[in-house]
Amino acid sequence: MTVRMRKHHLVPVLLLTIVCSIRSFAQSGIDTILPVRGLCIAAPQKAGLDAFTNFITKELAPRQVNTLILRVDYNYQYESHPELRDSNALSKADIKKLVAACKQSKIRLIPQVNLLGHQSWAAQTHNLLRVYPQFDETPHVKMPEKYVWPNPDGLYCKSYCPLHPDVHNIVFALMDEICDVFESGAFHAGMDEVFYLGDDKCPRCSGRDKAELFANEVRKIRDRLSMKNRELWIWGDRLIDGKTTGIGMWEGSFNNTHRAIDLIPKDVFICDWHYERPDKTPVLFAAKGLRVATSPWRTPAHALVQLNDMLSFRKGSTPEMKKYFQGMVQTVWSPAQAFLDEFYGKRTNPDAGPNTQAACFRALFDAIRDVK
Question: pTM of this prediction?
Answer without folding.
Answer: 0.92
